[in-house]
Fold this protein.
Amino acid sequence: MPKRILQGTVTSDKNEQTITVLVERRFTHPVMKKTVRSSKKYRAHDANNQFKVGDTVRIEECAPISKSKRWRVVTGADA
């Protein structure tokens, strides 16, 4: 099964080798027919501590690294 890749913005880099990424998705509401924004935060593994708050990154699903980390940073989205 292919691994999911999401794109989001780093909201926290306070932890060692961990960043928090805010991923936003847009969809049309089934009843109101209005575009709705929904967001979710993911904790991702950043081995080199290279990403800072405000950076746009791509994250990929992986095997569990810790209790809350199931994602790994692939690259910065700009690169």
User: Anything to note?
Assistant: The mean pLDDT is 94. The CA atoms of residues 6 and 71 lie 10 Å apart.
